[in-house]
Amino acid sequence: MPVNDELLERFRAVDTTAICDADRTTRVVHGAIRARSATTRVFGPAFTVRCREDFLAVLRAVEAAEPGDVIVVDGGARETALGGEMFARAALARSLGGIVVDGGYRDMSYVATCALPVYSRFVTPRAGTASQLGELQVPVTCGGVTVNPGDVVLADDEGLVVVDPQRLESLLDAALAIKNTESHVIELLDGGGSLSDAFNVAEHVDALGRGEPSNLGFSSFHG
């Protein structure tokens, strides 16, 4: 399923925590890969890059990616800058969806205020070389998870996740249902209720105490 404005609006109504609650097998990028920019929310198809100690492939990706694409760089988790201010400015000019680097990024004086979402594992002043072609649009590993070209990259203040595009719509539906239930729980708590009023705590604890399988869940009055 192609990423479009309607799906983007649906993502804005949820967050990555609800997505992970809806599907615990969701690919979660390691938390060491953190937002470096003023904008943290990402939603777009992955344009993948694999390179090592050399940023030429990232430059090529910035020039080749389509508007809305999120450049995902497998830099081998090495502490070498594979991008900086110029790449972020060029990506903004081409209306890309963001840059995610499992490696280093630099020029924080600009990137920290940048409207383009930029994520990286390291911040470092030392740039790589520009003499190796690298690889574009191949399956890569970023933050410990596999990212295929066209996988949907979603991020917010909680972190980064990667979703199969064929599962995106149903996952957003499930995440929205969770957010709606959570809003009822918040109203209950704000009104003086307890967690035991909101969740099946007693039943869950009793079942586990008897050695029976059980899951903690919302109380039935939220259904």
Summarize the structure.
It comes from Lentzea atacamensis. This protein is α/β, with parallel strands linked by helices and 223 residues long.
Chain-wise SSE layout:
Elements: H1 5-12, H2 16-22, E1 27-28, E2 34-35, E3 42-50, H3 56-64, E4 70-74, H4 85-93, E5 98-105, H5 108-111, E6 118-123, E7 135-136, E8 140-142, E9 145-147, E10 152-156, E11 159-163, H6 168-190, H7 195-198, H8 201-209
Parallel strand pairs: 3-4, 4-5, 5-6
Antiparallel strand pairs: 1-11, 2-6, 3-7, 3-10, 8-9, 10-11
Helix pairs in contact: 2-6
In whole angstroms, the N-to-C terminal distance is 29 Å
Helix tally equals: 8
Mean pLDDT: 95
What's the alpha carbon Rg, rounded to whole Å?
Answer: 20 Å
Q: Which fold does the CATH topology of the largest domain refer to?
A: Glucose Oxidase, domain 1
The level 1 CATH classification of the largest domain is: Alpha Beta
Q: Could you say which structural class the secondary elements and strand pairing correspond to?
A: alpha/beta
Largest sheet: 9 strands, mixed
| Corresponding CATH architecture of the largest domain | 3-Layer(bba) Sandwich
- Uncertain runs: none
Strand tally is 11
The count of domains is: 2
Give the SSE order as H and E letters. HHEEEHEHEHEEEEEEHHH
Approximate strand percentage: 15-25%
Broad shape: elongated
- Would you identify the CATH H-level superfamily of the largest domain? Ribonuclease E inhibitor RraA/RraA-like
Q: What proportion of the residues is helical, as a percent range?
A: 25-40%
